[in-house]
Each structure stands twice: as C-alpha cells, then as structure tokens.
Amino acid sequence: MSGRFGARLAEQVAAHGPLCAGIDPHAPLLAAWGLADDAAGVERFGRTVVEALAGHVACVKPQAAFFERHGSRGVAALERVIADARDAGLLTIVDAKRGDIGSTMAGYADAFVGDSPLAGDAVTVSPYLGFGSLRPLLDLAAERGRGVFVLALTSNPEGASVQHAVGADGRPVARAVAEAAAAENAGAAPFGDVGLVVGATVGPAVAGLGIDLDAVNGPLLAPGVGAQGATAADLQQVFGDARRLVLASSSREVLAAGPDPAGLRDAARRSADAVRAALAV
Q1: Nearest to 211, CA basis, from 150, 147, 124
Q2: N or C: where does the chain have the smaller number of CB atoms within 10 Å of the terminal CB?
Q3: Mean pLDDT of the chain, nearest integer
C-alpha cells in the first residue's frame, strides 16, 4: 500500500468520478452473462468486471457472499479478483460486513485488512456489537493504510429498529456510530480512512436523527443509486453539505451491460456522470 486509503480514494474519485461499481455475481446475472452458477462462473464474472473497469471507475466492490456461497473454491475466486484489481491499480472495497468481538474480530482484521489474499483496499464492517468492538480491525487498517466502511444507516426497513434506537446517553445509535467515525478521522485531509455506509434512499432519517455527515470527514458509501432508484433530490436530501464525501455504489445498472467490456465501461461512465450531476460537486 502506498499512502492512506482516503488519499488514494480521493485521487481516484477526482480522476473517474464518485462511482463504486459493485461486483455481485448472483445467479440471475450469471445466467444473463451465459456463465455457470459455480466457482468458475463467479471468478470469470469478477475478473471480467475488473479488466473492463480498471482505469474507468474510482473503485469496485465485490460482494463476498456471492463468492463464499461456493465454498473454498469461491473464496479462492474472490482472492483472484482482488489480486487482479490490485495488479491493475483498481481500488477494491470488499463487501464482507464483518463484526465480532475480541480475538475473533482480530481474526477478521487479519483476513480483510492484514496480509491475507482476501484483503482489498477497504472492507465493510458492522458496529452493532458496539463501535469499540471494531478496534482490532480499525487499528490494523490504519497501520496498513487500508480503509473501513462502517454500517450506519441502511435502507432496509428492519435497520431502523436498531439504527434509530436511542442509547443510554440519549443519542440515536446511528448518530453515535457517525460521531465515533468522525473521531477516527479527525484532522485527516482530504478526508479520513474510516467511512460510513449510508443508504441513498434513507430519506429524512439523517436530519431527523441529528447526524452531521459532513463532520464525519470520511467517505460515505451510498448504496441505492441506479436500479434501486435514488434520485438527485434523494442524494441532496440525505447528504446535504456532505455530498463531496459521497461514493455512490451501483451494481445492477452497470453489471446488466455485461459481459461485453465496452458495454460495462459505457454503463459505468453513464452512471458516474449521472451521479456527479446529481451530487452537483
């Protein structure tokens, strides 16, 4: 790793736009691409996306579950996709959403931000065993120059029962998570390495919970753009003055244009242009 994740990401966003292309080889997409729903199919899918989009998007986000469902061979396929991206200079956020305590969290840290072949440039994690439970991973990520995206406000209806709940200190849980991330990023420029996952379709929840996303000073990974329907008005309502920090995630809208590499690149370019215009940054 050369330099901090936040600085590397800022460079890629400036060059290619605020779009992170998902790599989600689920069964219907594999079938649409003419690929088998097995480890070889998901590997071909992921490596095709990397080859097509390297140098054309800020980063890619392989969803670990779609590889892991094929067992050890699927995990090996994910490792090769990550290695291809690294060799191509393409930033990778491994969407693993890990979260645990103590030595188990330290094991996840070794796997996803240490020297393991599963380690990309960043990883998604869940803080719902307490933000402090992430400390082993946060510390190792900082040591290795990798990034961490912490789930904060997700768009699924079930998430609100936890994320909107008020803790003993009077703060909503999602706000406490955002403020903890801000503390990790204090003083970093152009922004820090600890980002949040905030759904682009959460509507007025950010303001309603009193969350200052601009103060997070870290990248805001925003699922919900593209096929999930977030509009320019949605992005402006959710992120407000923090729009400069947004990294929009789009999967189906880009991946549906494959397996033709030119089609993937064209779709990614259209999505990046639309996101840039929607964010007005």
Answers
A1: 150
A2: N
A3: 95
- In the set 97, 144, 252, 270, the catalytic residue is 97
To the query of whether residue 97 is one of the catalytic residues in this protein, the response is yes
Dist CA 237 CA 168 (whole Å)? 28
Q: What are phi and psi of 226, to 5 degrees?
A: 95, -120
Taking only the tens place, the pLDDT of each residue in 226-270 is: 656 677 778 888 999 999 999 999 898 899 999 999 999 999 999
Angle formed at CA 86 by CA 152 and CA 20, multiple of 5 degrees: 40
What is the greatest pairwise CA distance in the chain?
53
| Residue listed under structure tokens 């009077």 | 170
Do the beta carbons of residue 226 and residue 254 sit within 8 Å? Answer: yes
CA–CA gap between residue 55 and residue 74 (Å, rounded): 26
Amino acid in the structure at residue 250: S
Buried b (16+ CB within 10 A) or exposed e, 184-199: bbeeeeebbbbbbbbb
Secondary structure E strands in the chain: 19-23, 59-62, 91-98, 122-125, 147-153, 194-198, 220-223, 246-250
Cβ proximity of 30 and 37 under 8 Å: yes
Residue-level pLDDT at 281: 61
- What mean pLDDT comes out for the span 185-213? 95
Helices 39-53 and 71-88, axial angle in degrees (round to 10)? 10
Return the domain boundaries, the chain. 5-279
pLDDT in tens, 107-142: 999 999 999 999 999 999 999 999 999 999 999 999
What CATH number is given for 5-279 in this structure?
A: 3.20.20.70
Residue range 40-47: mean pLDDT, rounded: 98
